[in-house]
Amino acid sequence: MFASVGAGGLALALTACGGGTDTAQSAGTASESSAPQSGAPQSAAPQAGGALAKTADIPVGGGTIFKDQKIVVTQPTSGEFKAFSAVCTHNGCTVGSVSDGVIVCPCHNSKFAIADGSVKDGPADKPLPAQQIKVEGDQITLA
């Protein structure tokens, strides 16, 4: 009986770290992103020039997690866009939400600042690495 509970718990933990939907989040709310999808297979590393979203899709004070590209794009202040790796520096889980000015990892609740990716609350002790993006007009693409 213990083995089946453990396996179920493992499946639940893996489900919490996985998923392929993109979400836009601000002040604790989430919605489906309308980010364009390419027909090409996704690789583990972000692809330069790949379209991510429109600027209007990234909430001020929040951000959007692109799980397939393993990137999170934030808008700390109006018109200022930042991008970071969506892979938590603590244990390698994909971050799960963006709210109240922080990016949160669901595995151990590490929190990172949306302005610079710095650790706001551990157990992570390293910031999320910055990623390069370009904002041209209302389009955000990978640089």
UniProtKB/TrEMBL annotation:
GO terms for cellular component: membrane. Keywords: 2Fe-2S, Disulfide bond, Iron, Iron-sulfur, Metal-binding. The keyword Iron applies. Residues 30-51 have a biased composition (Low complexity). The keyword Metal-binding applies. One of its GO terms (molecular function) is metal ion binding. Its cofactor is [2Fe-2S] cluster. Residues 25-51 are annotated as: Disordered. Iron-sulfur subunit of the cytochrome bc1 complex, an essential component of the respiratory electron transport chain required for ATP synthesis. The bc1 complex catalyzes the oxidation of menaquinol and the reduction of cytochrome c in the respiratory chain. The bc1 complex operates through a Q-cycle mechanism that couples electron transfer to generation of the proton gradient that drives ATP synthesis. This is Cytochrome bc1 complex Rieske iron-sulfur subunit.
